[in-house]
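Blinded run. Sample ID left blank on purpose so nobody reads anything into the name before looking at the predicted structure. Input follows.
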Amino acid sequence: MTLVQHLATIALAAVANFLTRLLPFALFKRSDKTPPRFIRALGDFLPGAIMAMLVVYCFREVDWTGPTHGLPETLAGLATVLIHLKWRQLFVSLIAGTLIYMLLLTLL
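Blinded prediction complete.
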C-alpha cells in the first residue's frame, strides 16, 4: 500500500470508530435522559453473551487429544473464573488467568 492508502485507511478507521461511539447517543437522545427499554435490555444481555462467545473463541483450538489434553487451558480458565468470583476485579482475574496459563504451559 502507498502512504496515501495507509493514511486513508487510518482516517476511515478513525471516523468509523468515532461514529460507532457517537451514533447511539445521537439516535437515542431523549428528553428524559433514559435510554429506551430495548437498549437497557441489550445492556443487560450483551455482556454475558459476549463473554460466552470469548470463552468459545478461546477454547476453539484446544488440542484435547494432545500431550496435555487441554489441561493448561482448562485450569487457567477455571482459575480465571474463580478469581473473578472471589474478588470481582476484571483486570485482576484476566491478568492472573493469563499468568497461570503461561506458567502451566511452561511446566506441562
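Unblinding after everyone has recorded impressions. The radius of gyration is 20 Å.
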